[in-house]
Structure formats: C-alpha cells, structure tokens
Amino acid sequence: MSISQIKKIILEDKKYIVSIVMLITILSIIYCYFIATPYFKSESSFYQKKTGGSFSGMNPAVGKLFEKQLGLGSNDKNFNIFIPDLIYKSDKIINAILNVKFPSSFSNEPLTLTEFWGLDKIEDINEQKFLLKEKLRKSINIGINDESQLITISCETEDSIISQMILNSLINEIKNFIIKSTSEHYKDLKNNISKKVDKYDSDLNKAYDDLLNHLNKYKVTEQSNDVIIEEKKLNDVVFMKRGLSQSQQIDYEKADNLEQDNTETLLMIQEPTRPPEQSWPKNILIIALSFISSLFGTIYFLVLKRKFG
Predict the structure, then answer these.
(1) Quick one: CA dihedral 269, 273, 276, 278, positive or negative?
(2) For a 10 Å CB count at each end of the chain, is N or C smaller?
C-alpha cells in the first residue's frame, strides 16, 4: 500500500483515530496519577576495603618458595565478605532491621516494615516474616562495577523517607557486621599462628644447635668433602627454619594489627539519598509512549482492515 493511500485512510478515519488515541492517552494519565502506586528509590555507593591474605610479610618470592616446598598455604585465606550474599543469601542483615521503627510520610508515628507493608494482618507469624523478608529483598538492588569495584546499592519503596531509612540501616548493619566479623577472624587467625610460633622457634633453636655441634666436632683443616656437604645441609636447614620462624612472627603481628584496626570497612562515596521525586511510574514517558503506540497502532489496524477487509 502506497503512502498516498495511507494518507487517504488517515484523513477518512481521522475522527476514529483521534478518539482512540485520546481515550488511551487519558487512560494512561488516569493510571499514572490516580491508580499506579508511586515508588521512590534511595541510592548509595561505596568501596569495600579488602584485607588481602598473604603467606607473610617477607619477600614474596621467598614466601612462595616456602609454601611450595613445604606444602604450606597462606595463613590467611583471603578473608573477604561478599556484600550481595549478606542480603540475598543470608538473614543476618535482614533480620536486624525487621523490627526497627522507621518514620514515614504516611503516619505521624514510626512504623515497622510489617506495619508499613500491611503484613501485620497475616496471623501466621512464620508466613508474615517470610513474606516480609522477600518483599524487603525485592526492594533492594546491588550492583558492583567490574573495573572499579564500586558498589552501588539502592532501596525502592512506596515512601521516600522509608527508602532512605531502610538503606541507612542496611549500610550501618553491613558496616557493623564486617567490623565484627573481621575482628573475630583475625583474632582466631592470630591465636592459630601463636600456636605455631613456639614450634618454629624451637625448631630453629634445634637447627642452630645441630650446626654448632657439627662445627665444634671437626676442625677446619680436617674437613672432608662429606663434612663440608653436611655443613651446607645444616646451613640450609637453619636458613629455612629461620625463614619460617620470621614469617610466623610477621603474620602474627599483621593479624594482631588487623584485629585492632578493623581494616575491612566501607569507604562511602555517596550516603543514602532522599529521593526528591518518584522513580516509578515515569509519568511523562508512559503517557508519551501510550500516545505514540496508540496512534501508530490504530493507523496500522485501519490499514490492515482496509487491505484485507
């Protein structure tokens, strides 16, 4: 069908087209402003400071050599907390804010999330708690930039104040959890290392004694090739035992510092925002799309009807 024919159809049925487009546009306006529940999104972004695990503070090449030769792994197995798992795969953070009362735009009195979402009408407590957790998790979105590792977290609810307050509470609970878990982890690690320190010190002292006994046993002028080789072996043992002892001492001090410093924390880039306007529905966008789609849809329908009717 040619363009001139389409123009003719539009002119002939313009009243029908206008009425349909106006009806759909008016319905979309009614939906956006009177029916649809508005949602408000609060956002925050931060970096998560990591404490990398290593065999020791000694020379990396030497540390790796000891690990490889002696079958030792790192004392600290890269203790990292993956924040999305705290929200989506654990109840530790979620449970901490279930009974918190938040201010809102809907009430003069602070409300729990159960009251805010109307779930307090459910008599079964277990079902109520389950639905509350699911609804809370669905309101939270977490994104991590692959390159910069910047973490962006948002909370979207029916109230701008509630969205901001939930996000504030979540971030505070995440901080507290990370600090506590980090401290406990390095405390346990330090205690574990301390048990090895005495053993390696004892082994080093024994290696020194063996070397000293060997040197005292033979005069320099009387040393044969076998004696020289044995001395080299004992020197190698002393070197290795000294390296192991030093590495444990360094790891102990590192764990002690990390336990006290709580290095695993959040570096805030943007604090939770109070959304100035609703994030959904996008009124202008929905109305514009309704107008355009209804216009072209009606014309397309009339063209098909004229062609095959």
Answers:
(1) positive
(2) C
| pTM for this model (two decimals) | 0.69
d(CA 246, CA 197) in angstroms, rounded, equals: 9
CA distance 70 to 202: 18
Instruction: Give buried/exposed letters for 88-103 (b at 16+ CB in 10 A, else e).
Output: eeeeebbebbeeeebe
What is the rounded distance in angstroms from the CA atom of residue 86 to the CA atom of residue 174?
8
Separation in Å, CA 150 to CA 46, 181, 275: 6, 21, 21
- The letter for the amino acid at 215 is L
Closest CA to 69 of 249, 248, 240, 251: 240
Cβ contact 303:215 at 8 Å: no
- What three-state secondary structure class fits 61? helix
Return averaged pLDDT per consecutive 10 residues of the chain, 309 residues in all: 79 89 93 90 90 45 44 52 92 92 90 94 93 96 93 95 96 91 81 73 74 70 63 74 74 70 77 90 89 91 80
Query: Which phi and psi angles does 219 have, rounded to 5°?
Result: -80, 155
The Cα–Cα gap between 263 and 182 comes to: 8
**Which of 156, 150, 119, 152 lies closest to 137 in space, CA to CA?**
156
